[in-house]
């Protein structure tokens, strides 16, 4: 039975990972990625477009399934070797989270729902994952069957 996760990163960082087929969280720490297993669903939330700039983006920027394998270290230059996991990303539209806030288990009835995101990776309900996938235009069955 897969688990579902909401990861947090700026949209520019998420786009790098989507293009290269990986995810990383919490500035490359291994610990959070050790919770994530092959076959798990992952959604990225981006509060901003560019790292350390506050522009109020508040968007869901990527969705996919974790590929087989363990966390590994990538190389980003200047000696920075963050831990990553490979992900089969869906073809999906980036969307604002705001229209979904009254329908997501993550946020319904929680005026301070964003506070929990400070951890960088949190569990997400299957309901939320499926609602987000549908809203982003992702085809779950096609990706799950063809990429894992």
UniProtKB/TrEMBL annotation:
Pfam families, alphabetized: EVE (PF01878)
The protein, known as: UPF0310 protein ICI42_03420
Residue ranges occupied by any EVE domain in the UniProt entry: 4-134
Alphabetical list of InterPro entries matching this protein: EVE_domain (IPR002740), PUA-like_sf (IPR015947), UPF0310 (IPR022996)
Family: Belongs to the UPF0310 family.
Coiled-coil boundaries: none
């Amino acid at each position: 039975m897969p688990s579902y996760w909401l990861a947090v990163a700026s949209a520019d960082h998420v786009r790098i990972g989507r293009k290269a087929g990986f995810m990383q969280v919490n500035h490359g720490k291994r610990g959070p990625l050790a919770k994530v297993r092959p076959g798990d669903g992952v959604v990225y939330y981006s509060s901003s477009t560019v790292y350390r700039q506050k522009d109020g983006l508040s968007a869901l920027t990527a969705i996919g399934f974790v590929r087989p394998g363990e966390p590994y270290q990538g190389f980003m230059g200047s000696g920075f070797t963050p831990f990553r996991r490979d992900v089969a990303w869906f073809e999906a539209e980036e969307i604002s989270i705001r229209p979904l806030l009254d329908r997501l288990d993550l946020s319904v009835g929680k005026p301070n729902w964003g506070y929990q995101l400070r951890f960088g990776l949190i569990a997400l309900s299957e309901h939320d994952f499926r609602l987000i996938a549908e809203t982003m235009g992702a085809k779950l069955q096609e990706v799950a069957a063809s990429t894992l």
